[in-house]
Amino acid sequence: MRRVLVRFPILAYPSEYVGIGRFTAHCLNLDIIADDDSLEGALAKLLETIEQQLDAAEENGVDPIQLAPQRYWEMLGRARAIPSELMERVIGTANKRQGGHGSSGAIDADQLEIRELQTA
Question: What is the pTM of this model?
Fold first, then answer.
């Protein structure tokens, strides 16, 4: 089976509903989110969830693409890229967590566009 390289635009922002001091990471072309007490934790959880979503879609023969509402894409345009050191740590953490879970393959950094929305 041929694998297609898909880009995953991810927006990270302070959680709107979960509580103060928490972060949400939102994959915009799958419209899935993860929350955590830290930015790094929310992003790592989201990468795990993306892997699970893609595995389930492949297993069931369905297209996993489900675009987030337009307002999140607009927020992505105002957000800034996360530092490369954070990106490396997040990918490393997610790949360690996925180890032994039967994942079809780790997400490559080239597939990710992670941006953080700064609030005043």
Answer: 0.84
Residue 120 lies in a domain: no
Does residue 36 lie in a domain region?
Answer: yes
**Mind listing the pLDDT tens digit for each residue in 17-72?**
766 789 999 999 999 999 999 999 999 999 999 999 999 999 999 999 999 999 99
Q: Whole-angstrom Cα distance, residue 34 to residue 23?
A: 8
What are the residue ranges of helices labelled H in the chain?
39-60, 70-78, 84-98
Q: Which domain holds residue 37?
A: 8-100
Cα dist. 48→25, 57, 80, 90, 95 in Å?
12, 14, 22, 10, 8
Q: Report how far Cα 26 is from the mean position of its chain's Cα atoms.
A: 6
How many structural domains comprise the chain? 1
* 93 CB-near residues (< 8 Å, 6+ apart): 40, 44
